[in-house]
Amino acid sequence: MTVRLSRRAWFGTVAAGAAAALPRRAAAREPVAPEPGAVGLLYDSTRCVGCGGCVAACKESNGMPWTGEPRELDCTTNTVVKTRRLSRPAADGATTAFVKRQCMQCVDPSCVSVCMLGALHKEGAGKRDSGGERKGTGIVVWDKELCLGCRYCQIACAYTIPKFEWAKTDPRIVKCQLCRHRADPARGGAYAAANPSCAEVCPQEAVVYGRRADLLAEAHRRIAAAPGRYNPKIFGEDDGGGTQALYLAGAGVSFRDLGLPDMPASSPASLSESVSHAPYLHGLTPIALYAAAAAIVRRNRKRAEEGHAPRKEDEE
Amino acid sequence: MSAHHHPRPIGGPILDRWMITLLALFGVAEGVITWRFVAGIGAVSNMNDAYAWGIWEPVNVVVFTGIGAGAYSVGLLCYLLNRGKYHPLVRPSVLVGAIAYSLGGASIVVALGRPWNMYWLALPGMWNLSSVLLEVAICVIAYVGVLWIEMLPAALDHAATSPHPRWSAFGQRWGSRLARAMPYVIALAMLLPTMHQSSLGGLMLVAGPKLHPLWHTPLLPLLALVSCLCMGLGAVVVLTALMRHAWNAKHDHDLLVDVSRVNGALLVLFAALRLVDLYAAGKLRFLATPDFHLIFFVLEMGLFLLPAFAFLTKRVEAHRVRVAGAAMTLCAGALWRVDTFLTAYNAGESWSYWPSWGELSVTVGMAAIGVAVFIAVSRLLPVVVVQDTPVPASLAAFVLTRAERSRKGTAGEG
Known about the structure:
Chain A has 316 residues and is α+β, with helices and mostly antiparallel strands. Chain A contains 8 helices and 9 strands.
């Protein structure tokens, strides 16, 4: 009898463990669609001349110190223009290409998915308003009151965008918020949401600000108008579930060479959430596991107290 | 349970040479931690925006709690599978678990940039349930409490044997009350690690684009769960050997053989899950690239499979083989965890990381204070079951042990 009970308990434990840990396809999370009013940037690597005007403008608009031309994003640099050496020459023979980096404002951001208390959240969609938030812009904003400084966002971000103030005792998470503090409601449209100074100062229209849908149309228009000039792919249209910062590369230039990672069309957040949530069955599994464990432990204890002979091997 | 199963305080001087060394190591860590709160995390660590967790999260949290999972794996064997014979292993494992998890939690607080905002965690309405780390945090906080509650019977048993009548009455009354509530606490002690140990693996699911394909898989949570069971059982075997050496603690050969056999099966399960998963996901081709990731992968597999072969054959009968295998199991789990969080994690070409002396000293100091607390508690409270027929260092020690045991024995029965 005891043997049978133990064996049943063993199978129960194994099954419960498997249920708690095995991913289940059935409960996969729905993909997130871009919000209709989502705003973002279009960066055209073929138009960029690498003047760095956007970098200087960004620093000025965000009150960050100028300490020489930055080479990498850091806690005082929200955008940077890099010169990338290409692994293969471009179609026009160029061996280098420019790329501007800043927060991608993902459609389904990893940083938002992993943030413990929602300090990083889509503007207007958080658990609390960090101040003047508008709905539907899709901008990923940071609320210093809710941030524990755990830096899971830095681990999670596929583009390694969020930066941390390592030298401070009151450190912030720093990243581009599309100059939403420069929004100009009087101007209307996308400018009512934000007004990034990088796009404002670009002399080449290499950086364009607007609604994501309009930027996507503009990108397609540019490719269609000069097919020989562009890589036909628009990075960010679907990559990693889509981004609100979109990228155009020159013909024969891979986005990998620009430093943008190969991403599947689904977001990392959807994988993480599907696999992590599925076994919980909306909280049913832990309750069932707890009840089962309590019942088994109680029963075993009772048997021991009633003096039921335990398994032979238990006796000493 | 018969009297010879009863754990009792080891006794002896608390502040011996070992203890002073351990406390000194912790003192250095304390200094670094203090400086971290004065000058920022960057002042004491080499952590950077790409390797934002350095070694504190992968080692102090993920590896320490793996070692502390002995409380979970032995608990599963003892309470759920009703193998009462494992009971003597429970208290030491729970103590190791309580210490390891407390240190993991403390390390997180040290590593948090804005710990003063932690009060929000008390408001479930503010939880982002999509965050795997939130699940880990809440679960670990709860489990630290559960583990120390599981340790309370040791303190209450000790109080019950106190010559002071009030203490004795207090110990007996609350001891029996707690005993009635214990099944519900134990059930929680089974549930919570199932949740957060799998979640610890789940933490890196989202980092897919930055994690080497040999380590990134939807099976991460399951692998983390199995690896914590392996590490937990390995830790128990190593711990028992150390305690036997130091304190002549009870060392039940057959029991440890059984624990190791179970562990052998788990080790094979882990390796099989990994290999089948790599095959199913079409990732075997990454094993053809000779780089340092491959070295780590082969090392991991060796550390998982070598002890498995020892445990599942006759060799498990040999004390040395068993202890060496258990130590390798600990290394196996630790290496897989560190690989998943650090070596297989690549944030981009322009970044690199190597831990600073400050970071290392905090990790070493945390481990040292853990060992120190274990020794101190075992000396003061009934945690460890000591050998029936001790091999006495001297006749006096022999007599003292007998006398103390008979005193404890009668007091315990009374």
